[in-house]
Specification:
Layout (H helix, E strand, L loop, with lengths): L3 E9 L5 H11 L3 E12 L4 E6 L2 H14 L4 E4 L5 H13 L5 E3 L17 H8 L5 E2 L3 H8 L7 H12 L5 E4 L8 E8 L3 E7 L9 H14 L4 H17 L23
Parallel strand pairs: 1-2, 1-4, 4-5, 5-6
Antiparallel strand pairs: 2-3, 7-8, 8-9
Helix pairs in contact: 1-7, 2-3, 3-4, 5-6, 7-8
Length: 267
């Protein structure tokens, strides 16, 4: 059977993040990708100029139509910018008994532009986080979900991950890409294990869509039947290689995208 992954997220008109990054990642990793668009963004490598939210009933229609026909193995959630969208998605996940769910709590674009309405943070915490097989916040997102200061050490990252698990997530990957130091360290926290995943920090301006790509790569691994820790390790390696390959692309004049197909073709 063909492995199928579904991404429920926003669209990035520049192609580097969101739905576009997710579908590229699924394809690069040998998984068939389906998509449900929650918002349209007028976005490039420099900034997000505008956001057009998809009506909640149409988000519902997309999800129900996909599940009516496709045997979805894993689901990834990305940008859910408004309370109505969060409610619609939460109800659909319940209706279709989704258990293999990776939640990337997209709040702020790499450019610094807000992608989640402030009034929606509490609802995301209550309605979506408890459904996650894996929650993948970066340091600012973890802090925002917990209404806490930004973690400054691996000890604090682990503590925040454990607090997020207490909200209902079965596992949490706290991403350290926003940190400092020679290594980019992510921490995977589950009920019975703690895994430190480190890679050399790469000096580059081409990191647009890194979070979307990592969570999509994990989802692809889970769709193919990998155990969670193996899916996370494989995804970390894929993203690291995609960042290394990005400097040859020369896309845009701001924060450029990763090279999702680094293994398939060279610039």
């Amino acid at each position: 059977m063909t492995a199928i992954a579904l991404t429920i997220a926003g669209s990035d008109s520049s192609g580097g993040a969101g739905i576009q990054a997710d579908l590229k990642t699924f394809s690069a990793l040998g998984v068939y990708g389906a998509s449900v668009i929650t918002a349209l963004t007028a976005q490039n490598t420099r900034r997000v100029n505008a956001v057009h939210d998809v009506p909640a009933d149409f988000i519902t229609a997309q999800i129900d139509t996909v599940f009516a026909d496709l045997a979805v193995n894993a689901v990834k959630l990305g940008m859910l910018s408004q309370p109505a969208a969060i409610r619609a998605v939460a109800e659909a996940l319940e209706r279709h008994a989704v258990t293999c769910l990776v939640v990337d709590p997209v709040m702020i674009a790499g450019s610094g532009d807000a992608l989640l309405a402030p009034q929606a943070v509490g609802l995301l915490r209550k309605a979506i986080v408890p459904k996650a097989l894996l929650l993948t916040p970066n340091l600012p997102e973890a802090a925002a979900l917990l209404e806490a200061p930004l973690a400054q050490s691996e000890k604090q990252m682990r503590e925040q991950g454990e607090r997020l698990m207490a909200l209902g997530a079965k596992a949490v990957l706290v991403k350290g890409g926003h940190g400092t130091g020679p290594e980019s360290v992510d921490l995977l926290i589950t009920a019975d294990s703690y895994v430190r995943l480190a890679a050399d920090r790469i000096t580059t301006n081409n990191t647009h869509g890194t979070g979307c790509t990592l969570s999509a790569a994990i989802t692809a691994g889970l769709a193919k039947g990998l155990a969670l820790v193996d899916a996370v390790r494989a995804a970390k390696a894929y993203v690291t290689a995609a960042i290394k390959g990005a400097d040859g692309l020369h896309i845009g004049h701001g924060m450029g995208p990763l090279h999702h197909f680094h293994a398939q073709w060279k610039p």
